């Protein structure tokens, strides 16, 4: 809780990232991988990595977040819109890190989910379709 409070009050992004990463390491050691607090901390660390331009770390964090969401949602709501949004972000990060094949694979999964939740005429599905064609 002290680390969290300090990180929330921090004005320097590098210092905030260090505190959040420390929190994350501790939580990964003591909490279940499906724990909501751990998920929130990963999302916070992802946001900070994106803000700081650390794309490789952002990609790794996003990948872990997607895997957790897939595991938790696969039997209940595998096409949940939040999961599709996170997959889209992961596809963009994969491409930005030079992994176009992974980006295509993740984006295709995202599009399959969006087809169910939004339909092929939705703005989001079309955006994903355009992005996929740009990766070809």
Describe it for me?
It is built from seven helices and no strands. The chain has helices at residues 2-9, 13-30, 36-51, 55-73, 81-96, 100-117, 123-135. The chain is globular and about 45 Å long.
Rg from Cα: 16 Å
- Helix/strand class: mainly alpha
Number of helices: 7
SSE string, helices as H and strands as E: HHHHHHH
Give the topology.
Elements: H1 2-9, H2 13-30, H3 36-51, H4 55-73, H5 81-96, H6 100-117, H7 123-135
Q: What's the gist of this structure?
A:
The protein contains 7 helices and no strands. The mean pLDDT is 95.
What are the defining features of this structure?
mainly alpha, 7 helices, single chain
